[in-house]
Structure formats: C-alpha cells, structure tokens
Amino acid sequence: MRNRRMVLVLLLSLTLAGVSPSVGADGGWGIWTDSNQSHTYSFLGNNELRFRYSDQRTVEGVWEYVEGLCWLGPDKRQIGNIVLHVETVECCLNARFLGNKLILSEVWTKGYDFIGSEACRNRVLNRASSPPKK
To answer: Are 121 and 108 in contact (CB under 8 A)?
Structure first.
C-alpha cells in the first residue's frame, strides 16, 4: 500500500511539473539508453539501478527520486530530484522528461570510480526495448 502511495505521489509530482514518465507497475522508470547505446540505465522497481557503460560491464546501484532531493550551494542555485549511488560514487542529478526523452543533468558528484562517475554525467536518453546484459 505504501509503495502504491509513493508511486501516486511521484506521478502527481511529475504531472504538476509538466513531465509524463511511464512508471512501471513496480515503480521503476524502465530502461533508457543514449543515442549510440554506450550508456544504458535501468531504473528498476525497489529503487534498484543497473548501469552499463559501453561493452565493459554492468554495475548495480540504487536510485531515489524526490522533487528537491538535493542541491548545490547554500542558495540552492541548482536543484536536483534524483540521487544515484553507483560503486563508490554518489551523485545528484536533475531528471526531466521532454517528449520521449529523459534528460539527466548533473548537479554534483561525490567520490570517484570510473564507471560510477560515468553514470553521473549529463545525458539525453531514449527508452530502450530490452535490459542490458550482465
């Protein structure tokens, strides 16, 4: 019941913000990839994240979405709504849906791991039809 409420709140927040993601029954956003399919994000239910960089490997992490979840600076000049935890990296991004695209804009990144840091870059993503292979 609590998960359903969270999904409804998420949908309402996104609707009021002028975006319309397709949220799956499990609460995830599905699978998204960049135009050359070298970066694939699987935003799964239960806040599970799978990120695949090029053909190197897939790493697992977690994601959390809440409007105003993170920001940069005391004046909050940049506000993010999604935090990713991948390997030893934590990052704040602003995620927004424009047309059939998911736009990720980096607000801040803490820690360093090559693949984890790659997950935290600015991206324009398209919905993918199949999950990345491990």
So the answer is: no
Contact 19, 94 (CB under 8 A): no
Residues 89, 80, 71, 53: what is their CA dihedral angle, to the nearest 10 degrees? 20
The two three-digit tokens of residue 41, written as one number: 């994000």
> CA separation (Å) from 23 to 7, 10, 90, 112, 132?
8, 9, 23, 30, 19
Residues in the chain, overall count: 134
Whether 63 contacts 43, CB under 8 Å = yes
pTM: 0.77
The predicted-structure confidence for 2-60, as pLDDT tens digits, reads as follows 444 443 334 334 433 444 445 555 679 999 999 998 999 999 999 999 999 987 789 99
Q: What is the pLDDT of residues 99-109, one digit of tens each?
A: 999 999 999 99
Q: Which residues contact 132 (CB under 8 A, 6 or more apart)?
A: 31, 40, 42, 50, 52, 58
Q: Which two tokens stand for residue 123?
A: 């991206």
The average pLDDT across 90-107 equals 96
